[in-house]
Structure formats: C-alpha cells, structure tokens
Amino acid sequence: MRGEGHFKRVLQAVNRYFTFFLLVAFVITCCTMLFVSVLSGTLDIPLTDENLNAAAKLTFLNVVLISLLFTVVDAVRRRLTVELPVRHITQATEKMMQGDFSVRIPAVTKFATDGKFNEIIDCINHMAEELSGVETLRTDFITNVSHEMKTPLAVMQNYGTLLQTPDLPEEKRIEYAKAITEASRRLSDMMTNILKLNRLENQQIYPKAKTYDLGEQLCECLLQYESVWESRGIDIQTDIAEDVTVSADAELLSLVWNNLLSNAFKFTEAGGRVSLTLTATEHHAVVKVMDTGCGMSPEVGAHIFEKFYQGDSSHATQGNGLGLALVKRVVDILQGEIGVESTPGIGSVFTVRIKRAIHEAEENL
After folding, report:
1. Contact 225, 261 (CB under 8 A)
2. Which residues partner with 239 through β-bridges?
3. Is residue 324, in this structure, part of any structural domain at all?
4. Alpha helices in 79-209 (DSSP H)
5. Shared-domain flag, residues 224 and 358
6. Which of residues 67, 84, 100 is at a domain's end?
7. Would you say 278 and 214 are in contact if contact means Cβ atoms under 8 Å apart?
8. What is the CATH number of the domain that holds 250?
9. Any residues with CB less than 8 A from the CB of 103 and at least 6 apart, and which?
C-alpha cells in the first residue's frame, strides 16, 4: 500500500510538471515570437536559421527551468496550505473514530491558507467537544443507573433473606415485606422515569396539544397531595387566576406539576408552607411553586436539572434524581421556560412560563 501511494504521488508530481510545462511553453513561445517579430521589424534585423535555432534552444531551456521552478513552488504551497491541514484533520478524525474525543486540531495560520480550513477545523473541534460531553453523560448515566439500582436491589435481597428466617414474628415479617415493596416501588419508578426521559430526549413522545384551563389542572394535581399536607400539618396557600387557558399536552404538563409539587412537599418540614400561584401575562401563563423547605445553594441550583443529581442526600431515598430532568425536558419540548430561586434555610421558588392559547391572547388585544 505504501509503494502504491508513493507511485501515485510521483505520477501526480509528473502530471503537475507537464501541466506547468505546457502552460509556460505556450506563454513564453507567444511572448518570444511577438518580441522577436517586433524587434526584427523595428531594427530591420534579418532572422537567420542560426539566430532562430539559438533562440529556440534558449527558450526551451527557459521553459524547462521555469516549469520546474513553478512545480517546486506549487508543491511547497500545496504541502503547507493543503496537505498539512488535511493530515491534521485526518489524524484527529481517526482518533475520534477510536473513541478519543479529547483531541483538538490547531488552527492553520491565515498566511498559509485563506481560512476555509479553519472553518472546517472549528466545526470538527466543536463536534469533538459535543461528542466528549455526550460520552461523559453516557458514562455518568450508566454509572448512576448502576448505583441507583444497586441500593434497592440490595435492600430487597437482604430483607428477602431475612424473611426466610424460621419462626419470624408477624410484626417483623410485615416490616420486611413493606421494605421490599418500597424498594421495588422505587426501582419501578426509576425505570419508568428513565424510559420517559429517554423517549423525551429522543423525541419519541410528540406533544398532543389541546386547549384547556390550566387552573383546573393545577388544582387537580395539588389535591393529590391532600393526605400529605394534612398528615404533616403543612400550610397550603393558593392564588390561581381564573380563565387562564393554554394550548399544550395536558399529560406532559401534569408530569411537570406533579414533580414540582412532590419536591415541594418532600423538602418542606412539618408545619411548613407550600404555595401555588398562577398568573397570566399577555402571552404566557406563569406558574410558581414555592416552599419553605431547606433551600439550596447556588452551586446546587446550577445542577438540579441534571439526571440523577440530588443536592440533598438526606432525601435520597425518596427519589432518584430524575424528576427535575424530566421537568426540564418537558418544558423545553413545550417551548416554555423554567427557573428556580432558592435560599438555604428559607426555601425555593420554581417558576414555569408556558405560552397561553392563541385565541385567548387575541381576545386580550
């Protein structure tokens, strides 16, 4: 293969030389004939065979030398402006194909090229950076899934072993059975959320938009947690505007409200307060879910929408770190916005903005 490649390069060099040879021969011959003709007519010098032969030999030699010079200059130019950048790009892409996404291609100096290679290099470097991020996320995802699955499986295995103990008291049997049920429920919820998130991220779930009253949906979602706030003495405050309609996928949006409310109750201590408000602007419905829970630092807040991230490890057994990742993806699909404001020890406020129904916005104009 190497010998074949070398032979091709030699043929290409010879081909370029003869191309320059023919071009230079044509140009020099035309110029020489014009010069000699004008000079002979002006100075009245006769053109003898001896003079023509000498001129022809000298012209041919000039053509050979100039063609060789052009070929060498062109070879150097091609090596610096084409072959070297292409080699760097080829080597980098080969490393990427082998799974090394840390490779970056240095930019080509503008003196040696017109900058078009730099556009290609920038795109490849950006692609490598994105692929590196995807690979990191994939690795982290596998690691986190393995870790999250290991805990409930270990619980189920341990309590299953304990259930096999002879003469186990009824009270202990019920306790161990409940622990196994809770661990299996947690594992099932995690698998369900992983499947939902995967389908959302791969756009396998397409929103089925319909126009409906957002306030009614929020009230229905909040009432699902009535037993939670009553048993823990949590104060509920609501301020829901009437006749705020949206055109969106109701099932996907209910996933958003249920996750936000679930987190609010999970992180609010007994005797605390959870607030739910709905207001309307000209083009958006604005939903705020507020709690007086533990809050979080700006460092934690910057990562809460990442998969499997749990800022408060004390509540890790109550979730799997996928809820807010699902929320963020749903809001993005519905072309909405979500933000969070939080202060440690005071609480958090999640704000979601969803576009209102078109006909409603027109009525307000």
Report:
1. yes
2. 277
3. yes
4. 84-97, 116-163, 170-201
5. yes
6. 100
7. yes
8. 3.30.565.10
9. 92, 95, 96, 128
Q: What's the CA gap between 234 and 228, in Å, rounded?
A: 8
Give dist(CA 356, CA 365) in Å, integer. 13
Structural domains of the chain, count: 2
Q: What is the pTM of this model?
A: 0.51
Q: Of 83, 100, 117, which one is at a domain's C-terminal end?
A: 100
The first and second tokens of residue 217, run together, are 């949906």
> Would 86 be classed as within a structural domain?
yes
Reading the chain (365 residues) residue by residue, the pLDDT tens digits are 555 666 677 777 777 777 767 777 777 677 666 666 655 656 566 666 676 676 667 777 777 777 778 777 777 777 777 777 888 888 888 888 887 878 888 887 766 566 677 888 888 888 888 777 666 656 655 665 666 677 678 888 888 888 888 888 888 888 888 888 888 877 776 677 667 666 666 655 566 778 999 999 999 989 888 888 888 999 999 999 988 999 888 887 888 898 899 889 888 888 899 999 999 988 899 999 999 988 887 777 666 776 555 555 444 444 445 678 778 888 888 888 998 888 888 889 999 999 887 554 344 44
- Enclosing domain of residue 57: 2-100
SS (H, E, C) 330-361: HHHHCCCEEEEEEECCCEEEEEEEEEECHHHH
Q: Is residue 106 domain-resident? A: no
